[in-house]
Amino acid sequence: MINSAKVVQNITLTHDVFELTLETKSDFSFTAGQFINVKINDGAPPCFRGYSIASKPEDNNQFRLCIKKIDGGRGSTWLQSLKNDAEITFLGPIGKLTLNPSNKKVIFVATGTGVAPFAGIIEEALLKGNNQEMALYFGLRHEKDIFYRAKFEELAQKYRNFKFNLTLSRPENPDFKGHIGRVTSMLDELTIDPENTEIFICGLKDMLQEVNSIFLGKGMKPENIHLEQYD
Ligand SMILES: Cc1cc2nc3c(=O)[nH]c(=O)nc-3n(C[C@H](O)[C@H](O)[C@H](O)COP(=O)(O)OP(=O)(O)OC[C@H]3O[C@@H](n4cnc5c(N)ncnc54)[C@H](O)[C@@H]3O)c2cc1C
Q: Which one, of 119, 107, 108, lies nearest residue 67 by Cα?
C-alpha cells in the first residue's frame, strides 16, 4: 500500500543515529515490529530503503523511525536532511517481525539500530499488560553510541517481566560500569528452555548469523527464531 507522511520531528539521538517522527494524512495501522519501504526522493532516480517502525501504534497516526546515518549512503543521508513538514512517500506496513502473545519467554537481540522494531514491540506488549517474560540484549560499541537507554531502563523498572541488558564492546571510559563485550558474550552464558522460548534477532547479517547459531546450538527450533536482516 502506497502511503505518504510528513515529518513532525527530526532529532539527533547520537553522533550517527537520528529519529524521525512521521505523521500520515489518513489512518495508518500497523503491528508493532513491522517496517516501511521509503522512497528516497533525493533528486537522483528514486530508490527504496526499508526502515523498521520504532514505536507502537498510536491514535494520532504518528510513528517513529530510528536510523543510522551511513557515510555516503543515499537513504540515510536524505532522510537525515529532512526538515519539519517535508513529505515522504512509502510502501507499507510490511513484515512479520511481530509478537504473538503466548506464555513463552521472549528474548530480543539487537545491535545498533536493529533495536528499532523491538522498541515498538516491547513498549506495546508491556503497556497492554502482556506478562510474558521478556529480555532485551542490546549491543553497541562505545558510550557515545548509546541511545534509547533511558526508555528501556524505565520500562525495566516499571515492569518486572522485562529485563534490559546493554553491553558495549569497546567502551572508551575504563570505568564504564555496565557489561563489556559483544552481545554474543552475554548470550553464550544464557540457559534457556527451548520449548518455552521465542527469539527475535535484528541487525546486520554477520551478527544475525552468529546469534542464530548460538540459539540453534542451545536447542531452539528455527521456527521459533524470528530474524530481520538490515543489509
Ligand atoms: C526490513 C529492513 C528494515 C530496516 N530498518 C532499518 C532501521 O530501522 N534503521 C536503520 O538504520 N536501517 C534500517 N535498515 C537498513 C536501511 O534499509 C538501509 O540499508 C540503510 O539506511 C543504509 O541505506 P543508505 O542508502 O543510507 O546506504 P547504502 O549505500 O545503501 O548502504 C551502505 C551500507 O550500509 C550498511 N548498513 C545498512 N543498514 C545499516 C545499519 N543499520 N547499521 C550499519 N550499517 C548498515 C549496508 O550493509 C551497506 O553496506 C533496514 C533494512 C531492512 C531490509
A: 119
Write out pLDDT tens, residues 151-176: 999 999 999 999 999 999 999 987 88
Q: Which of 13, 70, 90, 209 to mutate to test the pocket of ligand 1 (most atoms within 8 A of CB)?
A: 70
Q: Give the list of residues 6+ apart from residue 95 with CB closer than 8 angstroms, or none.
A: 33, 34, 35, 52, 228
Kindly report whether the global pTM for this prediction surpasses the value 0.90.
yes
What are residue 200's phi and psi, to 5 degrees? -125, 130
User: Distance between CA 227 and CA 225 in Å, rounded?
Assistant: 6
- CATH number of the 2-94 domain: 2.40.30.10
88-113 pLDDT, tens digit each? 999 999 999 999 999 999 999 999 99
34 CB within 6 A, ligand 1: no
Fold that domain 105-229 belongs to in CATH? Rossmann fold (3.40.50)
Can you give the residue ranges of every domain in the chain?
2-94, 105-229
The alpha carbons of the chain give a radius of gyration, in whole angstroms, of 18
Quick one: which atom of ligand 1 is closest to the CA of 78?
Answer: 26
Please provide the DSSP assignment of 34-92 as one string.
Answer: -EEEEEE-SSSSPEEEEEEB-S---TTSEEEEEEEPPTT-HHHHHHHHPPTT-EEEEEE
Dist CA 220 CA 230 (whole Å): 23
